[in-house]
Amino acid sequence: MTDANGNVEISTPQGLAWLVSEVNGLNGCAPDNFDGRTVRMTTDIDFDAVAQLRFTPIGSREHPFKGTFDGGGHIIDGLYFGLNKGVTNEDTNRDYGLFGYVCQGVVKDVTVNSGWLDLRHLVFGPDFEQYYDGGLVGFADSLSLVDGCVVKTFLCSSGMDVNNLGGVVGLNRNSTVRNCAFVCDSEMRAGDRAGGVVFKNLSEGGYTDAEICNCFFYGYFLECLGGAYALGGVVCFNETDAKSQAGGYKAIVKNCFAESISLIRATYGGSIIGQNMNDCVVENCYGHIWNNYENAGLFGLTLGEVAECAEFLPTGPCQLLQTVAVGGISTDVMVDALNAWVDAQEYPSIYKRWKPVYDPYNIPMFEDGIEAVAETGRETVAVYPNPGGNVLNICTAVTMWQPYNARVEIYDLTGKLVCKQEITDNVTSINAEDWPSGMYFWKVVADGKEIESGKWMKE
Predict the structure, then answer these.
(1) pLDDT (tens digit, 9 = 90+) per residue, 114-138?
(2) How many alpha carbons fall within 13 Å on the CB side of residue 270?
(3) Same domain, yes or no, for 228 and 278?
(4) Residue 138 lies in a domain
(5) Which of 59, 243, 270, 336 would give a disulfide with 331, using CB separation of 3.0 to 4.6 Å?
(6) Which DSSP state fits 121?
(7) Cα–chain-centroid distance for residue 363?
(8) Residues 438, 297: one domain?
């Protein structure tokens, strides 16, 4: 539905597909960037995830989205970005997310409740380093705003490791990400480089600050074999180029926290930031480092300014291991520190406030009524690739807590048990080379209790 001013209301998957065509100039449509207009979701939208219908991101470098997308607090389910079949150069050379490229635009108040990244495009072509992927926005550019958005249970199932990946935003250049969260008990297939909320936060060209504030990450990275180059719980790379340094602009991260429930194993691995570079600012940010590898701490590398950052323990009220000063008070309770920062801002109403959640997560979450916990709880299991070939991978966080006697069982269509294998690590790989093609049923069992089950198709 379009009003007299060109504002649009969307309530169906077909409506989102129409928006893709309008912005990207597809299916006979002239490209329309929606500058000065608003697209509103009026209800939750559910794609058929089983059908794995390939979703083309809204906006590209050639045809950016410049309007306002207002999710109205609604949910999108079942997004599928699949590039394993019929790949073209156009498919591989672009940014991926619900929105591919947003320039001077706004994306706000939407939750991606479930999605499926099958991104193998980064192994194609010479320009892969220049493209970015995010659960919500691939590339937010030039005074764009991503606000009040949550990504949950966004699985990365590619047989190849995905780089340049952010849980919410891939690249945030000269823009702002605030009040956002990535909350997922299943894997973020991080590959060699990834950030829990944003992959790269970049102030470039002497243009303006790049800012990430009042955000959090709860999830786990599945990095490439042998460890990644750089992983950051909130941001992988926080960078300010020479022109921005000369102009007094910076890449800034404030009032954020991250709990990685998996091992952070990287050359530059940090619970908060992988690499915090020269003339960058990190203030009042908190990280849980118990799953870090060897001596990795809050930062993998920090050459910039760091103030009032602390480790926390996710128990009780989330205890900070040192007292921090914020908003004129000193506290060692994380939820109090987060809210004190909000209260101290010039316009506190634009930031979400926080509430403690004691059971079962023991981390603060947003107070505004938009629940930011993955609906499947802590027991989400990822099975990939699906459909697949001779190897079936079972990725589960079951072994990160709970007793360790967990196993996976796989049955054929007749109900015959074809495989039973103990789960001893985050990823269990099963040799299916001798299995006939067709449908199989899997389930994960721990202490005699079925944790989760599903289907897997062998091609």
Answers:
(1) 776 665 444 333 444 588 988 899 9
(2) 24
(3) yes
(4) yes
(5) 336
(6) G
(7) 18
(8) no
